[in-house]
Amino acid sequence: MDISKLSYEEALSRLEDLLKELENEDCLLDDSINKFKEGMLLYNHCNNLLKKAEGEVKIILDEGKNTFADFDTVREVEDEYY
């Protein structure tokens, strides 16, 4: 599965499924570690999508104050979008 192609909702749903699977006491250690790794990738993907959305919202909110040319592109500075 290519996590980078998942929508926020798809990634979040898969993450919830993994959490349920990890709560199962019959889950083997190796399986648990692999599920944890996948969960961290999904978490990071969701977090990145949220940051991108936040950057887009900031641009929309600032539209009345600035011209689009002022933004040129969304720039990432220290994990924040301006």
Could you characterize what this model shows?
The protein has 82 residues and is mainly α. It has one domain (9-81). It has three helices and two strands; from the N terminus they run H-H-H-E-E. The chain has helices at 8-23, 29-62, 68-71; strands at residues 76-77, 80-81. The chain has a two-stranded antiparallel ribbon. A hairpin with a 2-residue loop joins strand 1 and strand 2. The radius of gyration is 18 Å and the shape is elongated. The chain starts with 7 loop residues before the first helix and ends with a strand.
Task: Describe the protein's topology.
Layout: H1 8-23, H2 29-62, H3 68-71, E1 76-77, E2 80-81
Antiparallel strand pairs: 1-2
Give me a quick take on this structure.
This protein is mainly alpha-helical and 82 residues long.
Helix content: 55-70%
Q: How are helices and strands ordered from N to C?
A: HHHEE
Overall SS class: mainly alpha
Strand segment tally: 2
Q: Percent of residues in beta strands?
A: under 5%
Report the principal-axis shape. elongated
Instruction: Please mark out the parts with pLDDT under 50 across 5 or more consecutive residues, or reply none.
Output: none
Largest sheet: 2 strands, antiparallel
With strands numbered from the N-terminus, the spatial order across the biggest sheet is: 1-2
